[in-house]
Each structure stands twice: as structure tokens, then as C-alpha cells.
Amino acid sequence: MVDKVIIRGIEILVASTQTALVEYLFSKNEIKVGRLVAINAEKIVLSEENRQLRQLIQASEYNYADGISIVKSIHKKYPQYRHIERIAGADLWLALMQKSAEMAVPVFLIGSEAVTLAETSAKLGTMGVNIVGQQDGYFSSAQENELIERVQRSGAKLITVALGSPKQELFIKKMQDCYPDALYMGVGGSYDVFIGKVKRAPLIWQKMGLEWLYRLLHQPTRLKRQIRLLKYAYYYLANKL
Ligand code: UDP
Questions:
Q1: Which terminus of the chain is more solvent-facing, meaning fewer CB atoms within 10 Å of its CB: N or C?
Q2: How far apart (Å, rounded) are the C-alpha atoms in residues 211 and 101?
Q3: Alpha-carbon distance 164 to 194, whole Å?
């Protein structure tokens, strides 16, 4: 089951499971076309400060709830969906890679440091993923057009972009305007997690909805970013969802 809800003016897909979302994105044996965006509290608050980001998220075809605050907000505003769980971007990305291998979908990887990208690509290759191109995340704006042409020429149908937020969302939009015939996904630190460079929170923390706290304790520089969570907590408590 995949349905849509609205949280703070943003349309979000609700899927009963991650598998249901993957099946939806590949229904009729064809990968969907559009942008797949992870929504969390930080991104919602950021989008209220940054009009361009807000427009991008509002126009994105497939937003999903990656972030316990968003999941709790859906439970509160839409009690009929109180069973839905968080879909972590890194897990969804991996599931899409597995499905792409199965369906022989051509994949283009963008983002992260060159060494991380090389390791990610090699590991995906052993899983049978058809990688038709790749580019690390440290290119200049002068190189963007050439990269977009490369993506287009590769014929990729799934393009995953790890540049962090909101950089990845902005670049994805630019690519999509030139080459709309693909599914784009912003994946943040997913490649780093995939090759074991960055550790996810232990499962018990994830299950308790505390992955954000684990990341904060390991990367205290995220505190400034996570201050936005306080603003979101107010929206939640004041029923401004
Ligand atoms: N990154 C990049 N180019 C940049 C900035 C960041 O390729 O100009 C990569 C960085 O190496 C890392 C990822 O983007 O692999 C960002 O991960 P982060 O955990 O910050 O993403 P989040 O999911 O928190 O937005």
C-alpha cells in the first residue's frame, strides 16, 4: 500500500513497508521517472528558511518519510497510518540498488569523496548493479553542464546523488530539467555508510527513534543543524502539522 499525506504543506508518500515503496517505484516492471526526496524535520524547517528548497520539495514527485519526527507527525495527524515506520534513506538506496541489479536498470552514481565512490562502485558491481557512469562530489560549478551531458549520454535510468542537503536537491533539479527521463535520488551519506566509512546507529537506537541523537554524539558539529529540530518539536507539540 502506498498513499499520500501532507505535513507542513509537503506531500509525503506513506508506504506500509520499504518493500512496498520499492515495488511502487518499479511497478509494471519499469522504474518511475522523477525525484525521490527524503523528508526529515531538519529539511522541513530548512525549507521554510529557503524558498528555493521549499519549491523543489513541493514539486518533487516522491517524498518519503526518512526521519522519526516526520513519522511521528504522520501518526499524530493521520491516526489511520499509526503503523507506518521510518524508511531510512541509506536502506532505501540499497534496496533500490538490489532491485536495479535484478531489473538490469542502468545506474549513475554521483557524490562523495573519490575513494568512497570508487569503493561503492566496486562493491555494487559485485552485486550485479549495472553502473554506467560515476562522478565524485567535488566538482566545480563550471563542470556541471559537462557532467549533465555525461549522465544523459550514459542512458542511466536511476541517478543517485550524495552531495548533502540542500546541495544535492538543487543539483538534481538542474539535471532533471535537462534530462527528465530518469529517477533521481538524493542520498546524503549513504555511500559512506555502505562502505563502512560511517557507522549507522546500532539497531536498538534506530528502533527507539534515536538515530539522530547517535549521529549528534558522534559528529557534534551537527548540533547547529539539529537546532532546527527544536523548531520542529514546537510544530509537533502545538499541532501545527
Ligand atoms: N559531499 C560531496 N560534495 C560536497 C559536499 C558533500 O560529495 O560538496 C558528500 C560527502 O563526502 C558525504 C555526503 O556528501 O559523502 C554528505 O553526507 P552528509 O552525511 O552530510 O549528508 P546528509 O544526509 O546529512 O545530508
A1: N
A2: 29
A3: 16
